[in-house]
Design goal:
single chain; alpha+beta; Elongation Factor Tu (Ef-tu), domain 3; 2 domains; six-stranded antiparallel barrel; 6 helices; 13 strands; 41% helix; 28% strand
Length: 319
């Protein structure tokens, strides 16, 4: 049905009786909530049908994602490794580690001493022409390399004897926190393979079928939230001065004329929504209408999207 036709219904159906009540017709609508996966996945099964009522937490659909289990297992392994690393740096160096480092230091010191002695032996020979300059260059490089290895081993022994530096502990903590965050993200994706209803309500539409591949955020099912029903009616310009946000209203369904539903005006359109043609005369200006949104209370679940309703807006005192 076109919007112009809906507005025309609102125009012809809106009237005001002697008590000051404004009566208009509208259609029940509900706040819509889409149930969607957070990551691409294939639909395995959809467990609800259109029109079915669901409670918050009910399973809506199950999905398939081939890499999820492997991803979670990999991130769990990273967490365990990070935890072990943190325990190790907190505990500090063990005696055997210090002994090995000291042995390595003694070995590199001996190599550095030998390389230095070789260099000192070759230098006068090169000066006398008994050795080539290439032999001197090689001895110089070997002495420098051996000295660098000795210095590194000496620093390692010093670090082990002093214990773990606070910076290394903080780094290990940060790596563990990062690993845990990645695991939590992987777990969230895995949990998203079972889609549950975020709110109670009615299934308005099934937007996918088993076997379909979904992108992240693509709707599987649309729910109409329970207790969040509303209707939108259209009030002519001449009656707009008697309408205010917060005013009480009552809605009646065609099938339940003796069962009123309390409501309240929550929004009024700031501009006219129906202009048949340029309004120049007073009569034409009176034909302009403004949309009025009425939120309805429903503890019975009787209000369903699409049901026609008659709304009475109660004129507020002083208006």
């Amino acid at each position: 049905m076109s919007r112009s036709w809906l507005l025309l219904i609102g125009l012809t159906g809106c009237k005001q009786d002697d008590s000051g009540r404004i009566e208009a017709t509208g259609t029940i609508e509900m706040i819509e909530v889409d149930v969607s996966p957070q990551a691409p996945a294939r639909v395995a099964a959809i467990l609800v049908e259109e029109g079915q009522s669901v409670q918050a937490g009910d399973t809506i659909a199950t999905l398939i994602q081939s890499t999820t289990r492997a991803d979670v297992a990999g991130h769990r392994a990273k967490v365990r490794a990070a935890e072990a690393s943190l325990r190790e740096v907190r505990a500090g160096a063990r005696p055997r580690e210090i002994e090995r480092a000291e042995a390595e230091l003694r070995r590199t010191e001996a190599e550095a001493l030998r390389a230095t002695q070789d260099l000192k032996r070759i230098q006068p020979l090169v000066a006398a022409g008994a050795e080539s300059s290439q032999r001197l260059d090689a001895a110089t490089a070997e002495a420098a390399t051996a000295a660098a290895r000795r210095d590194a081993a000496r620093e390692e022994v010093q670090l082990l004897r002093e214990g773990t530096r606070p910076e290394r502990i903080e780094l290990a903590r940060a790596e563990l926190a990062n690993a845990r965050a990645e695991l939590a993200a992987a777990d969230a994706v895995a949990g998203d393979l079972i889609l549950t209803a975020p709110v109670g309500g009615t299934v308005l539409s099934r937007n996918a079928e088993p076997g379909e591949m979904l992108s992240a955020g693509e709707s599987v099912v649309t729910l109409g939230q329970t207790g969040a029903a509303y209707t939108r009616v259209y009030v002519p310009t001449r009656q707009l001065p008697w309408v205010r946000e917060g005013q009480l209203a009552t809605a009646h369904l065609d099938g339940f004329p003796d069962r009123p539903f309390r409501g309240r005006i929550v929004a009024i359109s700031p501009s006219a929504e129906f202009t048949p043609r340029i309004a120049l005369t007073e009569k034409e200006r009176a034909d302009l209408v403004f949309g009025v949104k009425v939120a309805l209370e429903d503890t019975t679940g009787m209000l369903k999207a699409g049901l026609p309703a008659t709304v009475e807006i109660h004129r507020a005192e002083g208006l």
